[in-house]
Each structure stands twice: as C-alpha cells, then as structure tokens.
Amino acid sequence: MKLQIEKYLAEVQSFTTTSLEELEQFRIKYSGKKGILNDLFALFKTVAPEERRDTGRLLNELKEAIQLKHDSLKAGLGDNDNKPEKLFDLTLPVTDDQSGSRHPLAIIRKRIIDIFGRIGYTVAEGPEIEDDWHNFSALNFAPEHPARDMQDTFFIGSNPEVLLRTHTSSVQVRVMEHTQPPIRMTFPGRVYRNEAISARAHCFFHQVEGLYIDKNVSFADLRQTMMYFAKEMFSPDTKIRLRPSYFPFTEPSAEMDISCNLCGGEGCGFCKYTGWVEILGCGMVNPAVLTNCGIDPKIYSGFAFGIGVERITNLVFNVKDLRIFSENDVRFLRQFGSAI
Ligand code: PHE
Q: 144 is in which domain, residue-wise?
C-alpha cells in the first residue's frame, strides 16, 4: 500500500492546470466522496499493525499535498475563470485613497526652479558620479588644498579620480565648458558628503545651484537676485544679510542669511536665538574658474549661488529634523499632498 500512496503523491505534486474545470476534476478524483483518498483510508483499516505508523504518516502526507496543491492552484486562478475582462470592473468609480503626493523636497525644489525661471533661468542636470576635474580642479580647488576637506567626499576606493559629487557646481563646469555666455541657469540635484547623520546633516542632501554669466555682471546684480529669491520664496518682508565667506570658486564669496521665518527674527531654537538663518552660499565666479572652462574673464563676469533644498524645506514647512525626509514614512509624506 505504501508504494501505491507514494505513486499518488508524485502524481499530485506534479499536477498543474490553468483551468478551473480541470482543477475541479482533480479535487473529485482525489478528495471526492468516491475519491482515491477515501478508498485509501478504507484500505488502511486492513493494514497490519506494525505497518500502520508509516503508512498512516504517508497517507496524511498525501492528504495534505492534495489540499495544498488544490488551494495554491485555486488562488492562482481566482474564481473568475482567468478571463481578464472578469478581473476588473472598469465601470466602477475610482477611489482616490491610493493616490500619492509630491515629496516635500520635490515641492520646494520646483518652487526654487520656478522662482528663477520667472527671471529667465533655464535648468541643467548632470551626473551624480563625478570626476575630480568637474567637482574640484576646474573649480579652483588646488591639488592637496585643504579646501577639499570642507566637503568630506566619498571617493571610489579603487580610483580616487572618481567620486560622488559634493555639490552641483560640477554641473556648472560642464555647462560652461560647452556654452559661451550669456548663461543663466539653475542646477538641481542630489549631492553627497561624508557626514555623521543628525537632525541637521545627512550623507546626502539636495541643492539647487545657480549661475549667471554675461558682460558687466556685478555684485549688485548678485545681491538683488538673492533678495528677489528670498522675498519670493518666503514673504515680501523677509530681510537678507550677506556675510563674507570663502569658496575657492568665487571671489568675493558670501553666505546669505534670511530673517528667521519661524520666529520672525525674534530669536528661537531653530535660529539659535540669533534671528537669522543661513540659507545659501554665493559669490562672484572666480576668473580662474572661467578660464578653466574656456570663458574669457576679460570679457565676462558672473555670479553663482548654492541653495540647500532641505534647509529651505525645513523653513517653509517648519520641519526640524531632516532625517524624516528620507525615512519614507507615509504619515509624514501625505501631509504635503495638496502643497503643489
Ligand atoms: N558649491 C557650494 C557648496 O556646495 C555652494 C556655492 C555655490 C557657493 C556657488 C558659492 C557659489 O557648498
């Protein structure tokens, strides 16, 4: 009897079908009233006592295999006879509870790009995996210059020429190498730095950098453009202040603060009770950078700026910890559904 059960077991395990009708025949053949399983259980009563244990175990195994095979084939087929037109009722009204929403960083990135778009800035993107030239050397970071430490870089171990870009200034280089002025562009994208993750820093973040090169571009143009941006982004009564700073690729350079829009300049935890928050770095493009990229600094001048998208998003939506942007928690993300 054991051999007989084993034969059925192999038969059941190899059975397959895509037709509900055949599946029903399978069920009747094995588990029906006059089916194989019932026959075998009847026969089991005649089995010698010393054979009972093994035979019983095998019989139960067969019973389970039949059930399993039947259930799994049935689940695959559904009770719709596998006809596609029966899978969906296309006339049912659509429910909107599954619709997604824009990520808050995407909302703010778009607003930044649009604000500059209104004064003639077009958009360019470039690779996140960069080479030393575009990320550093062309931007006047001297070899071994300590300025490279300002942006803790992820280098590719086997080839120090290859790295994850630390800013989208690399895209500015790529554009300048192929375009003669006037150039008026923004450069959105994700950038990477080797920083310990905290509420204020992450190993990646997002920037929108910008570049304006033409004849007679001055620092006054830079300041006016940055003020326009701050007022458009936040509110018409936002104040700005420029503090002297240093970047190898701009000279002179500045960091720009805006009056803290969380406390209105009164002083709060976010602005460290100063009333000001830093939102971007900027400056006049260093003539050495123009030369490196094939633009004549005797004819042209320009300014550049780099805006941190997370920073602006924190301020606009009052988000205090940037880690939440990359945690994919829908309870957080859904709150921005209508803020397009
Ligand atoms: N590239 C700079 C950074 O990522 C930002 C910047 C851009 C500063 C352009 C000045 C001019 O820190």
A: 104-339
